[in-house]
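Subject: for your reference before the review

Hello V.,

The reviewers asked for a structural picture of the protein, and I figured it would be easier to keep everything in one thread rather than splitting it across files. Below is the amino acid sequence we used in the manuscript, unchanged from the supplementary table.
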Amino acid sequence: TVAAAAGAVSSLLVLPAGPAAAAAAAACEFISSPSGLQYCDVQEGQGPEPTKGSMIRCHYTGRLASNNRVFDSSYERGRPLNFKVGVHEVIQGWDLGILGTEGIPSMKEGGKRVLLIPAALGYGARGAGGVIPPNSDLLFDVELLGKRR
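And here is what came back from the structure prediction:
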């Protein structure tokens, strides 16, 4: 389970986002928010921060936190995900983890972040598409490419 205490830090070995880094592993020191959402910045972006309702582009790899099994990856498709951030077009953990909340800073364009999303901020008791079991905590490597062009 995901620690819910604010300021709690834990370590987890995950593969970094992006095909160039696929052969390497990166140790993340996760920082927790009161909701249980945890994050680790692999690379801080230098560009602007997204605003609620803006159309953004992200590359990502999603894994089950329980076994690190990949269930989806925009990298594998070769096409980033375009969506309006902060308006419930994606799971709540993504909106909060990208826009920032509860002591989690907003991502900046060019940034890469690992999100450890508790089930309550993911797909909850319903799971998703037969590939995400009910009540699953999720790991996402997220790369903020910026506003949709």
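For the response letter, the relevant points are probably these. Helices lie at 74-77, 92-99. Strands lie at 9-14, 26-32, 38-43, 55-64, 70-73, 81-84, 112-117, 138-147.

Happy to draft the paragraph if you're swamped.

O.
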